[in-house]
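At your convenience, could you comment on the folded chain following this short note?
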Amino acid sequence: MLILLLYFFILIVIVQLVYYLGIFGKFAFAKAQKITPKRIPISVIVCAKNEEENVAKFIPLLAEQNYPDFEIVLIDDASSDSTLDIFEDFEKQYSNIRLVKVENNEAFWGNKKYALTLGIKAAKKDYLLFTDADCYPTSKDWITAMSSQFTLHKTIVLGYGGYEKITNSFLNKIIRFETLLTAVQYLSWAKAGNPYMGVGRNLAYKKEEFFNVNGFINHIQVRSGDDDLFINEAATSKNTTIAYTPESFTYSKPKTTYKDWITQKRRHLATANHYKFLDKLQLATFYSSQFIFFTLAILLLALQFQWMIVLGLVVARYIGIWIVIGFSAGKLKENDLKYWFPIVELFLILSQMNIFIANLFSKPVHWK
């Protein structure tokens, strides 16, 4: 029995190394990306609901971008605070700001996809660049960096949306590591020719891609997923590329309580259930192999069965993964996370199990 567990443990280690070195390594070891500025007309789209503090702070950062031809489409999704008033003031202040006011209706009550659809239809430019109301670009060249990756055939660009660093916060390290790992996955799979998701905090595509799949209609009943479910449906190896220069990044404020973060991740996991079958399979295989690795490693070491072989496999797995995480963290300017990787990874796996179990018994809440 124990020998079978050992063989299974060896298989799990191989699976993990194939994921990290074989797939995630495509991003980790990729050459530095260059920015070749293009003069593509861009519509920056921001959808907000009750975000008065964030929009007052971050919209000016978008308006001050160094780019020759862009507009900002601000969508107020029936806010009950001062968001709409602030948007109206910005519309008067900046000539390139276009305002879309969304009123709740019976069919699409509180549905962000409905609000985004109205904003996309209102956009005057053929190329769309999305970010969230609580996000801000890292530089005034964000539009330049993201749009530079568009080509005649590459009409979807997946970017990186990180979270601010909070000093002396272990929760912040877990959140940022999970975000880093997620980014490494979707950027690597896109580079490997199998794009399966993107994040609305930093995402760009040509407007025709939206209409080619009839917008969000095929998953309009799912309250979330305006970013990842759309990419899961519309993105292919031929039309999708990635942006990972530091100028292309966006950042947003992370959750500050474990409960709020768990609620957020529950929504994300519930949305992933609607991915294509093969995408769900590869994600399930990856995350389950992580949990099984720790379970078997602890069991076999506790029983001291072929402990030198087991320990050697554990060390080999950590070295391989640490290298990939280190190079990836360097590319995404999250260097401090590579030092915390072994500890944070274990806490993240336990949190993911908590999220999975919670979603089995109740549905998460979506959009505001």
